Amino acid sequence: MLKKLLPKFKPLLKSLLVVGLIFTLVFSHAPDALAARSGGRIGGGSFRAPSRTYSPPGGGYRAPGGGYGYPGGGFGFPFLFPFFGIGGGFGGLFTILIFLAIANFIVRSFRNSGISGGDGAISYSNPKVSVAKVQVGLLSDARNLQKELNDLGRTANTDTAAGRALVLQEASLALLRHPEYWVYGATESDLANLDSAEAKFNQLALGERSKFTEETLSNVEGQLRQASKPALNQGNGELATQIPQEPGEYIVVTVVVGVEGKLDLPQINSADDLRQALREIGGVGSDRLLAVEVLWTPQAEGDTLTTDDILAGYPDLKLV
Fold first, then answer.
1. HSE on the CB side for 259, CA within 13 Å?
2. For 14-66, what is each residue's pLDDT tens digit?
């Protein structure tokens, strides 16, 4: 009789087994899920349309013979028109009309191609922008790196383009100085129009920030915020009560940038690839850098990042 009933209860037994496994996984990882993660953040910038301007000389070009060109610069008529055979009369007038028609065609071509000229300025309305990310996982022994990033976060000037470019350069340089601690790496780079690049940049930055329970050090657009030490180590802070009492194993640093033009980053398969990616992203100048965010975890003293955290929160990282 038992043999007859067993096939009927077999689906129920399978369901109970699956539910049991789910409960086991959930509750066995509960401490890790509740574990707080402190994070640091430096950066800023905006995705305003960059412009290129050209201001011609105000007095025009004095051609041989004393003639001037158009107001604001250019070549003089006496210089150009002899080549068209201007000697007066109908022939000279006809040549002038041809010249004006050519000039009008050139101006309209610039406007139709998305480049507009006015008051001596040429502006690019919707250029291409690269939104890129370089991520490095290091052994927790790289405490000097953590200290360098903390110091940079407290002192960096993030409300100017030159200051943000310096942040990018110093953060990349700090990572390049510690190759002996590199364990993981990853890169990502997408080319988009300016009007859609900001959303992509925010998506990448928010994705990393969401992995922090608290941003314990933040310097963005010149606004410095830092959590007090008593709130982290004592007091009623959520972070203090949830930090696990196990040794940390890793530090993860993420650099996200918005760069005018194309930025090629290699796929990470080795330490050499990671070194090249850091050099590429760190070499971006202030004239091309639209926005940057440098994020790292853990930031607070006593916080930890374990192997389980790496596997759960950073699945795109590859061994180098």
1. 24
2. 455 444 433 443 344 434 433 568 999 999 999 986 555 444 444 444 444 44
Give the integer Cα–Cα distance in Å for 246 and 303. Answer: 9
Cα 190 to Cα 46: distance, rounded to the nearest angstrom: 18
Q: How far is residue 312 from each of residues 32, 179, 241, 316, measured CA to CA in Å? A: 10, 24, 22, 10
Q: Are 304 and 37 in contact (CB under 8 A)?
A: no
Are the C-beta atoms of residues 68 and 62 closer than 8 Å to each other? yes
Phi first, then psi, for residue 293 (nearest 5°) are -140, 130
Hey, what are 137's tokens?
């996982």
Question: Is the bond preceding 298 in cis, omega lying within 30 degrees of 0?
Answer: yes
Which residues share a beta bridge with 30? none
Edge-to-edge strand ranges of the sheet holding 182-193: 223-226, 214-220, 38-45, 289-297, 250-260, 128-139, 182-193, 318-319
Instruction: Map out the domains of the chain as residue ranges.
Output: 25-49+127-319, 52-122
Res 18: pLDDT: 40
CA atoms in the 13 A half-sphere facing the CB of 117: 12
Listed in sequence order, the residues at least 6 apart from 154 whose beta carbon sits closer than 8 Å to its beta carbon are 217, 219, 224, 226
Read off the pTM: 0.66
Residues 6+ apart with CB under 8 A from 297: 37, 38, 39, 40, 211, 212, 251, 252, 303, 305
